[in-house]
Amino acid sequence: MTGTTRVFKDSSIQTELRALLLFASIFALVLACVGFGIHERTNFRRGMVRELTALAETLGANTAASLTFDDARSATEMLGALRAEQNILGARLFNSRGEVFAEYRRARLPGEFTMPALRAEGTYFDAQSVALFRSVSIDNEKAGSIAIVSDLSGFRAEMWQYVKIASLVLLLAILATYAVASRALRAITGPLLQLAQVAERVSQEENYALRAVPRRADEVGKVISAFNQMLERIQHRDKELKNWNEELEGRVAERTESLRREVDERLSAQDMLSKERRALRALIDNVPDRMYVKDPKSRFVVANAAVARDHGVPSYEELIGKSDFDFYPQQIAEALYHGEQELMRLKQPFYDREVPDTDSNGNQVWMLDTQVPLLNSEGEVAGLAGIGRDITARKNLEIAWQRAKEAAEAASRAKSEFLANMSHEIRTPLNGIIGMTELALDTELTSEQKDYLETVKLSSDALLAVINDILDFSKIEAGKIDLEEVDFDLRECLESALKTLAVRAHSKNLELLCDIAPAVPESVKGDSSRLRQVIGNLIGNALKFTEEGEVSLKVQMESGDAERGLMHFVVADTGIGIPADKQNLIFDPFSQADASTTRQYGGTGLGLTITSRLVGMMGGKIWVESQVGRGSQFHFTVRFKAADQQPRLNTLVPPEPLRGVRVLVVDDNETNRRILDNMLRNWGMRVTCAIGGRAALRELAAAWEAADPYGLIISDVHMPEMDGFQLVAHIRERKDVTSAIIVMLSSARDRGDAERFKELGVAELLLKPIRQSELRAAIARILGVADLQGVPAALAAPATPAGAAPPARAMRILLAEDNAVNQRLARRLLEKRGHQVVVAGNGREALAALEQDTFDLILMDIQMPEMDGMEATAKIREKEALAGGHVPIVALTAHAMKGDQELCLAAGMDDYLSKPIRPQELDELLTKFGRLAPERQVAPMRNES
Q: What is the pLDDT of residues 289-306, one digit of tens each?
C-alpha cells in the first residue's frame, strides 16, 4: 500500500482514475474466471463420479454371483472389461471379510502406483487419481465391496484449455477498458481543472466575488456549486464581523453583571457546604466503627468519636495533628507507623484485615481494619483513610469453634480406632464360627446335623454382611475410601462376581444371567473391587426380593471416546417390585421401601446407600425403574479409562477350528438363548436355538436328514416337559439322529447329576452363569483344539469339582496366631490341603521357630500378646537383610478398615488375608506362593507350640 501511494503521489487525477478503473476491471474478471473454473471443476468431478458409479454398479451386479460362489476367476475376467476405459487405472473386488477377491490393473502403470485398501463406501480424490468404493449386494445382503481407480488426465486437459481461454479474454478486456477510460475521463477532469484555476485567482487576488461556471449536474457540478456557495458565505462573514465589533462593548457590560451574580451564588454554596460538613461530622461521630484520615506522616487529619474513645481522649480535636506515638507504647506505635508507611509507599489498599489491638484499658482486642491510600490529582499520596471495627466477640467465637473442630476430629479418630478394634474383635470369633462350620459340613453328618450347621453358616454369613455394610458406610461417611485405577478384565470381573452368587440363585431356582454387549471393551482401567461390590449388592438385593423367574445383568456402552468411556449397567429381576413413591427413599441410609420388608427379608438398609455413594465416586449415577409385582431394573453408569495394556489375545480370537462348527443350543429361557447365540456366533460357529427338548430332537433329525449334522449340543438341565436328563437319554437311544458331543448347563452342581450325566456320555457339565472364558475353554477342550490356539492351561484343564481344594505344592507353613479357635481352624484348613503346619502363639514364638527350622510361608496375625505381627515381621526382615533369603509373610488379620492392607505391605509383608478366612481366598494364596516354594517331600512334623 505504501509503494502504491508513492507511485500516485505526483500523478494527475486523470492518471489515477484510469489506473483505478483498470485495477477494478482486472480484479472483477479474475474473480469471474476463478468462479467459472471452480464450476467447471465441480461439474467434471460430478460427471466422473456418475460414470464410475455406473461402472461400479454394473460390475457389482455382474460379480455378485462370483463372490457368492467363491469364483475368483470369473470375477477377474469381468473386471478385465475395464480395459475399454482408457482412464481406468485399476479395480479391486473385496469379499465380505474385507479380503481382496479379484483385481484388475491397467498395463504399463508406473511403479509407484498402488491399489487402495478397503475403505468405507464413497468417493476419494487425491492429486493424481480418484477412487470409488461401492458395496456389492445380492438379495439385499452385502456380499462384498468393489473399488475402481481412475486417473485425472481428462480433467487436467480440460482445465488447461480453460486457463488459456480465460487469459486471452482477460488481455482483450484490459485493452478495451484502457481505451474507453482514456476518452471518458477527459469529460470528468475538465471541470475540475477549471475549478482549480478559479480557486488560484481567489487566493491571489482575495476577490471573493469570483465564481466558477458549473456545466454539469453530476458530482463534479455539485463540487463547483459548493465552492461558489463557500465564496458567498465568506463575503457574508466579512459583513457580519463589522456588526459584531459594534456589539462587543455591550456584551462586555452584560458579562460583568453576570460575574457579580456568580460570586453571590458561590458564597451561598459555601454556606451550604459548611452545613453539610457539620451534618457529616455528626454522622461519623455517631458511627460505632473507627473512621479516620491521616496525612503522609501518619498524623490524624480527620477522626470520629470512636477513634477518640479508643485512644482515651475526650474529643476528636485532641487527635488532630498527633500520631500513634502520642498514645501507644513505642513498640506498638512503630509497628502501626511502618505498616501505614508501607501501604502509602505501595499505593495498595487492604480490606478487612484482622489485627490485634489494645483498648484504652490495656485489654487485648481484635479489630477488622480497612485502609485505603488517598491520591491527589497528580497521583501522589496525600495520606490514607481507614475504618476499623471491633470483632473481639466474633474472634472469640471462632477460637471456640476451632477448639470444637479439633475436639470433633479427635472424636472421629477415636471412632475410627473403635471401629477397627470392633472389626477385629467381631471378625476373630466369626472366623472360628464360619471356618469350623465349613469344616464340619465337609464331614459325615446326619441330615438334622447338616441342617443345623447350614443354619449356623447362613447366620454367620448374614452377620458378616451386616458388619461389612456398617464398616463400609462408616468409611464412606468419613471420606476414607479411595478408588484404585488399575487395568483389569471387565468381563472376567463381572462373570466372577455373578459366579459367587450362583449358589444363592440356584437355591431359589432362579436363572442368573450375564449379557455383555460386544462393543464393551475387554480391558479397562478403574477399581474392579468396588465395581464387584456394587454388582454384588444389586444382584444380592435382586435375589433376596425375587422368588421366581430370573435375575440378569446387562452391560453396554453409553458414550465415550478412546480415553474415557461411560458404561451403562442394568440389573433386572422379576421380583416384588418397588412402589413409585418409595423409589427415591431406598437410596437413603438405613431405609427400605417398606418397614415390613426389613422383618421379612432382613438387611441393614445400607447396601443401596453404599452402592449409590460408590457409583457417584466412580463418575456415574444410579436410578431405578420398577412396578409392584413385575420386578425392578436398577440402572447405573460408571466411567472407566482406557486400559494401558492390550487385552489377552485368547479372549478376543477364537480357535480357528471352532469356526464353522454347527452348534445346537437348547434352553427354555429366551435371554439365556440369546446370550449363548451371540457368544457362539462371535467365535464363528453356526448356531441354531431350540426352546425345549422336543424341538431339539426335531432339529437334530432334520439336520441328519439334510446331511448337515450338528457337531456340538449345549443344553440346559432344568427345562419343562423334557429336562436335560430325558433329552440326553432320547439322543442316546436314537443314535441314528446325531453323534454330536453334548455339554450340559446346570443351575446347581450336584454329585448325583454329575454321575448320571457321566453314565449318559455327557462331555462337560458347567455351572450357570456361564463365563465366556470357561465355555470357550470347555468347547476347545472337548473338540481337541485347545493347543492349536494357545489356550492357557488354567482354562484348558478341566474345572475343579465343587468343594474340592485346588492342587497346590506341599509347603511347610508357620502359623503365628494367639487365638486357640483360629489356630485349630487354620491348621485344619492347611492340613486338609496337604501342607504341614507349625503353630506359634505370638511373634516371639514365631521368631524362635524360625531359628530352629525353615519354612516356605508364614501366616502372621497382626494383634498378638508380647510381640505383635508388625514387630515380628520387622525383625524377620532385618535378619534377612543381613543373612540373605526371603520367606513370604501373609498378614492374617481381622482388621478390615481402610489402609490396613497398605500398612501390612509397608511393614514388609507379601500379601494380606482378612478374617473370616474364605477357603477360595486361602486357596489362591497357597497356589500363588506354592509356585515359589521348592519341590520337596514333606514329612509329618511335631507341633512345637
A: 888 888 998 898 888 888
